[in-house]
Automatic annotation (TrEMBL), chain A:
Belongs to the ABC transporter superfamily. InterPro entries: AAA+_ATPase (IPR003593), ABC_Ni/Peptide_Import (IPR050388), ABC_transporter-like_ATP-bd (IPR003439), Oligopep_ABC_C (IPR013563), P-loop_NTPase (IPR027417). Keywords: ATP-binding, Cell membrane, Membrane, Nucleotide-binding, Transport. Gene3D superfamilies: P-loop containing nucleotide triphosphate hydrolases. This is Oligopeptide/dipeptide transporter, C-terminal region. SMART domains: AAA (SM00382). Residues 31-277 form the ABC transporter domain. Residues 1-28 are annotated as: Disordered. It is found in: Cell inner membrane.
From TrEMBL, chain B:
It is found in: Cell membrane. Residues 95-292 form the ABC transmembrane type-1 domain. This is Peptide/nickel transport system permease protein. It comes from the Bacteria.
Length: 345, 311
């Protein structure tokens, strides 16, 4: 992406690629989304997302329900399914352009270099197959192990993710395990081939607080051990504070603010982000889709306001907000899409 | 599969069978004097009395019932006075023909129905899908006697490429098997399709894709075993109707099986034979039900393993 000066704020705020939307100058990013839009033939669901992720980095995607977090993740993995598709933009992963690969080429990447952990692990596991077989399958598929060897490795993985009595658990069916255990199975499956990137879509939301903390610790520890990068989708800013290197805040299909975790928690700029932070202090229901501190609800994708989509709920909305604000850098560590963030800051 | 479960199901099957047998007894007594039904109207009274004593019909009903049950236990299903041999022999001699027709049709229509349903679900909205839907509506709404006669008109009389009646060669089997199987294939296709559509939308199918599993493997290893669970019910119904379902088709194509025998036996008031066939039909249904239960357990670990939650 070229450096394009924004006319109104020339000199103070600039579009950058090596700024907050991506890691600062350093290694080639592992994953890069360039102007990715997702939608059906009728509506745009995610628009113009730029993101990048360095090896080993943890990026949190936050935002209310329906703002496009899951679709962004799926787009990054090339996992969208009809009628939803990637309408524009490109995705690069480890030097390849994923968005140009065929389904067969993608199959070789999925589960091996990129793997995904879903919200409801019990539903995400096949109810009629033994969990051990479901984990071993990945190893047979991507590493060419025999079933026997794959099962032995699956047992080792179960042990690694803290499943007690792994040999016996291999033979269990998902309905025989608790939600937390199933999430551990999913994690074992996701880590089986030591992926470069883990996409965890609300991996802890369905779990009780204690289990949630255990799973988070586990993910972080395994991430350190394997050096995998992670995209972690969550509603819970507490979780974000705990694990994120960088945070992208989404609202109604767009990234409205992206910053290093430190910068974001120190100085949230976008009125929506501020609203989220306020909720965090006042409301103890992190998984609830609705935010009490921000009046109103997210507009459905089909009825989005033309300018800033947050305008109807925004305390700082002005006439200029009828034009869509661009995502512009504020300092080196932060970028915000809001007209109220002027050159003065 | 626990032995307790098997025993329970077997006991229930036996109970069903016992009720069916009792039902047959009651119906036959309610229908009037069996001798009047069996013997010509102008039979002299002393002959009737002779038979009444011979068959034990002069005894009180409870005793008749016990004798009847006792006979069944010993394999005595009554005497076919048209064939002048035990009714069981008459019925058994027809079983191979019915099984040949019924099983051929069952196997072929099941395979066609499953494949058509799976393909239709995978290609939802396509021409193939619409063809499968049309076929299953056709199979559902076309009365089999009409389809049979239509086929006889076309293939046996107009084009003369298939024999219209009887049994003997593989060619004889074609039209009856198709006539018998079309409805079932349609029903199985419809069930398989909707069951597959539901399964394909489940989160675990997305997981399989995210794991990099090739599409063919996803369908066969992840989708089909789940989709098969509700389809088993339809297959069980079809299996239960294996014998009773052939009546019309065997009559249209003069196929010498049980269905045809039933029609003749009813016409000739050969009560022992009718009774034996009814019991046989009940037995088939009980066996089919049992098979469905076993298949459920085998396909769905959630039923089998209920109650041993582990963490
Ligand atoms: N197949 C689809 N067809 C039409 N719209 C869709 C489809 N899938 C998702 N959407 C819409 O796209 C928007 C974004 O969905 P997405 O699942 O990415 O939200 P999310 O941020 O992950 O929300 P949540 O927190 O509830 O998981 C939602 O408004 C949703 O209704
Ligand atoms: S652009 Fe305007 S409406 Fe949108 S968040 Fe900023 S101030 Fe609020
Ligand atoms: Mg989501």
């Amino acid at each position: 992406m070229t450096l394009v000066d924004d006319i109104s704020f020339a000199g103070t705020r600039r579009r950058t690629s090596s700024g907050p939307t991506g890691p600062a100058v350093g290694p080639e990013p592992l994953l890069r989304l360039e102007g990715v839009s997702v939608g059906t033939d009728r509506v745009d669901l995610v628009m113009d997302v730029d993101l990048s992720l360095a090896p080993g980095e943890t990026l949190c995607l936050v935002g209310e329900s329906g703002c496009g977090k899951s679709l962004t993740c799926l787009a990054a993995m090339g996992l969208l399914s009809a009628p939803v598709r990637c309408t524009s933009g490109r995705v690069h992963f480890a030097g390849q352009e994923i968005s140009a690969l065929t389904e067969t080429q993608l199959q070789a990447l999925r589960g091996r270099d990129i793997s995904m952990i879903f919200q409801d692990a019990t539903a995400a596991l096949n109810p009629v197959r033994r969990v051990g077989d479901q984990v071993a399958e990945v190893l047979v598929l991507h590493e060419g192990l025999t079933c026997h060897a794959a099962r032995a490795r699956a047992a080792a993985l179960f042990d690694m993710v803290g499943i007690p009595d792994p040999r016996a658990r291999l033979r269990a069916y998902p309905h025989e395990l608790s939600g937390g255990m199933n999430q551990r199975v999913m994690i074992a499956m996701a880590l089986a081939c030591r992926p470069k990137l883990i996409v965890a879509d609300e991996a802890t939301t369905a779990l009780d607080v204690t289990t949630q903390a255990q799973i988070l610790d586990l993910l972080r520890q395994l991430q350190v051990e394997t050096g995998a990068a992670m995209i972690f989708v969550t509603h819970d800013l507490g979780v974000v504070a705990e694990i994120a290197d960088r945070v992208a805040v989404m609202y109604s299909g767009r990234i409205v603010e992206v910053a290093t975790a430190d910068a974001l928690f120190e100085a949230p700029r976008h009125p929506y982000t501020r609203g989220l932070m306020a909720c965090r202090l006042h409301v103890a229901t992190p998984s609830a889709g609705r935010l009490a501190a921000i009046e109103g609800v997210v507009p459905p994708p089909s009825a989005r306001p033309a300018g800033c989509a947050f305008a109807p709920r925004c305390p700082k909305a002005e006439a200029v907000c009828a034009n869509r604000p661009a995502l512009l850098g504020v300092g080196a560590a932060q970028a915000v899409a809001c007209h109220s963030i002027g050159p003065a800051r | 599969m626990s032995p307790g479960f098997l025993t329970l199901k077997l006991l229930r099957g036996l109970l069903t069978l016992f009720l069916a047998v009792t039902f047959v007894f009651v119906i036959l007594r309610l229908a009037g004097d069996p001798l009047r039904l069996m013997l010509p109207d102008d039979t002299p009274p002393d002959v009737i009395d002779h038979y009444r004593q011979l068959y034990g019909l002069d005894r009180p009903l409870p005793e008749q019932y016990l004798r009847y049950l006792q006979g069944l236990m010993q394999g005595d299903f009554g005497y076919s006075f048209r064939d002048r041999q035990p009714a069981l022999d008459t019925v058994l001699s027809r079983i191979p023909a019915t099984l040949l027709l019924g099983l051929t049709s069952f196997v072929v229509s099941t395979l066609i129905g499953l494949v058509a349903g799976i393909v239709a679900a995978l290609r939802r909205g396509s021409l193939v899908d619409q063809a499968v839907i049309s076929f299953s509506i056709f199979g559902h709404s076309m009365p089999s006697f009409f389809l049979g006669i239509l086929m006889i008109l076309l293939f046996a009389m107009t084009w003369r490429i298939l024999p219209s009646a009887g049994m003997g060669s593989a060619a004889h089997l074609v039209m009856p098997a198709i006539t018998l199987g079309v409805g079932g294939a349609g029903a199985i296709a419809r069930f398989t399709r909707s069951s597959m559509l539901e399964v394909l939308n489940q989160p675990y199918m997305k997981t399989a894709r995210a794991k990099g599993v090739p599409v063919a493997t996803r369908v066969l290893r992840d989708a089909v075993p789940n989709a098969a669970i509700p389809v088993v019910t339809v297959l069980g119904l079809r299996m239960g109707g294996l014998i009773s379902g052939t009546v019309v088709v065997e009559t249209v194509f003069a196929w010498p099986g049980i269905g045809q025998l039933l029609v003749t036996a009813v016409g000739q008031r050969d009560l022992a034979v009718v009774q034996t066939i009814v019991i046989l039909v009940a037995l088939t249904m009980v066996v089919a039900n049992f098979a469905v239960d076993v298949a459920y357990r085998w396909l769905d670990p959630r039923i089998a393993g209920a109650g041993k939650e582990a963490t």
